[in-house]
Each structure stands twice: as structure tokens, then as C-alpha cells.
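Posting here for the record, re: acetyl coenzyme *A.
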Amino acid sequence: MWEHRMEPRSEHRLKWAGILGTGISLPGNIFTNHDLEKMVDTSDEWIIKRTGIRERRIIDKDKPLHQLGIEAAEKALLSAGIGSEELDLIIVATDTPDYLTPSMACLVQRGLSARNAAAFDLNAACTGFIYSLAVADNFIRTGYYSYVLIVCCESLSRVVDWKDRSTCVLFGDAAAAVVVGPVDGNLGIISTCLGAEGNLGHNITIPCCYISEEDLEKRSGERKMTLWMDGSEVFKFAVGIMAFATEKIVMDSGLSMDDIKLIIPHQANIRILDGAAKRLGLSENMVYSNIHKYGNISSASIPVALNEAVEDGRVALGDNIVLVGFGGGLTWGAALLRWAK
Ligand code: ACO
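Prediction output follows.
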């Protein structure tokens, strides 16, 4: 299905770009599986067994999501040692913006007083961080920009149908940010690859300004602009594409699986991670997982996990790590980083 996309993308580089700093902001409100048991016909046992999720964070009702993004961005800037006025570009990856306009990126730009930065939103659902990283890498490698801030923030709790047990148990809210900037040669973002399968997009939908008859039929609740998903179709796609994209990015980078220290995948379901690891013949401890704490936090999933892995000492200078994800669209992507900090 994806064999045609095997050309390496690591050449044509004037400069090298890498992640200079990371930061996260998590809502304080922890919502456990037992809390969900009181709302829908489910059980802690089912959710843990079928997904690996134990709890998730839920944003306060009166807090705009961009505020969570600004908090994560401030931490990333501090960790990178970069002032907000040095930023050339702000990209916000999100499925759940506060407004269609102004963009989340403009709201973050205002909040940070990053007056020299251009700003735009990017929607690639759960693959939003990988897509944003590829955009930042290309802007920096060509010399067009020096410092790019990526903010991934999601408030899935605002778009799920809390009466639909097949989806409401899966998602959570969070924000994460990274600063991407110039690094020494042969470090940083070694390679990225992106893909989309728009013909499968109907398997995860969140209507916004328009709703079709088909979308209406799928939603039995009163609220109609909610997330709907065919979980088993997405599951099948996810396991195959995670394994494919991981192999591809390692090969594109001229490396072998033995050179990889850690794989940080999108956290959607522990069974997807286990299935992909099995296909790749990887041991469990090579695949980072924190899904039990946050559930699926869409675009924020990989950068939250990356921030944790760095803080836990699982990633050190010079380590090769693979970031790999898939999501609504459907989209997929991977990046190989040689940790530069
Ligand atoms: N509690 C109890 N039972 C449940 C629940 C629940 N929360 N949800 C579903 N069930 C029931 C179903 O009704 C079904 O019952 P039935 O057999 O009587 O009909 C049974 O459990 C099995 O349902 P399945 O859908 O087959 O369950 P499955 O094991 O496939 O797990 C899940 C469902 C967790 C959704 C899985 O398919 C999955 O993780 N899919 C991938 C989702 C994903 O990765 N999405 C990412 C993209 S999202 C984005 O980009 C925004």
C-alpha cells in the first residue's frame, strides 16, 4: 500500500535543525476510569485491558486551550534559553482550536509577546507534531528561519460525546511545546517522512462548519459536532503504518534498528504499540509508553512523551530516537532525531 514512498528525504540540507528545549502543561483535573464508570456503561477492567488507559487529564471548563499552550511554550523557551522575541515562526498543531480565527498560533504569539514571529495553525490530527517538525526542519535547513516554536495542544474532552463509551474513554487534554533551532552538523532532525491516506478519512471525523447526512446518522447524541470513530478500522491502519513508518525512517536515515535507542510513538492504545513492536521484532522497553496516565492526547501525545523521556534520562546527547505517529485524516509520519541537547 505504501511502497511507492521510499525515497530518502535527508539530503539537500544547508543547515541542521534540532530540538533545543521542551515543555509541557497538563490540566490538574485527573479523570479516572472509575469516574467514567459513573457516566457510561464501562469498567476500569475493560478500559485497561482493551486500551492500557487508567486516567486522563481534563481541562477546566472556563480555561481556553491556547492558555495551556502558552504555559507549555514558556517552559520550552526557558529550557531552550531562547527569548520569545527571537522566534521567527510559531506553529500550533491542534484538532480542537478555541477559534477558527484568530488561529491558535496568533493567540500564542500574542500571549508570548513574540512580536517577530509569523504564526499559523497546522491540522494533521494526532500526527500534528511530526508534520510541524518537518515544516520547522525545512524552514531552518534552508536558512529561511532560525527559531521555530511548535505548540501541540488539545482539548478532546470538548469534542467527545460523553455518552458514547466507544470513544469517550480514549481521549484526554494536554499541551506540549518544543523550540527548534540550529544545531551542530549530524545532530538534531536527521530525517522526516510524512504521508496521508485521505480515502480513509471518514473513519475519524469531527464536523466543524458543515455536517452531512452521513455524519448526522452516525451521531445519536444531542450534540452533533462531536468526534466519531470506527475504532477497529483505525486500529488496523495504525498497527501497519506504525511499523512501516518506523522501518522507513530508519532506512531513510542510513541506519539500522540496532542503532536506535528509543521509539516514541503516538499513544493511542497500548495494543497498537504492542502490535507494531511485535511486527518490528522490538522489545517492550524500546518503545516508550505513558498512555496509562493521559489516554490519547492527539498531537500533544508524542511531545509530552518526549519531554518525559528526556526528564527520565531515557534520552541522552547523541542518541538516535524515532518519533512515529498516525491520526485523523488519515495521516501518518515519522522523524529520526539524533538528540542534540
Ligand atoms: N467499555 C465497555 N465495553 C465497550 C467499550 C467501553 N468503553 N467500548 C466498546 N465496548 C464494547 C463494544 O460495544 C463491543 O461490544 P459488542 O461486542 O457487544 O458489540 C465490544 O466492547 C468490543 O468492541 P470493539 O470496538 O471491537 O473493541 P476493540 O477491542 O476494537 O477496542 C478501541 C476499541 C479501543 C476503540 C480500539 O479499536 C482502538 O483503540 N482503535 C484505535 C483508535 C485510535 O487509535 N484512534 C486514534 C486516532 S484519533 C485522532 O486522530 C483524533
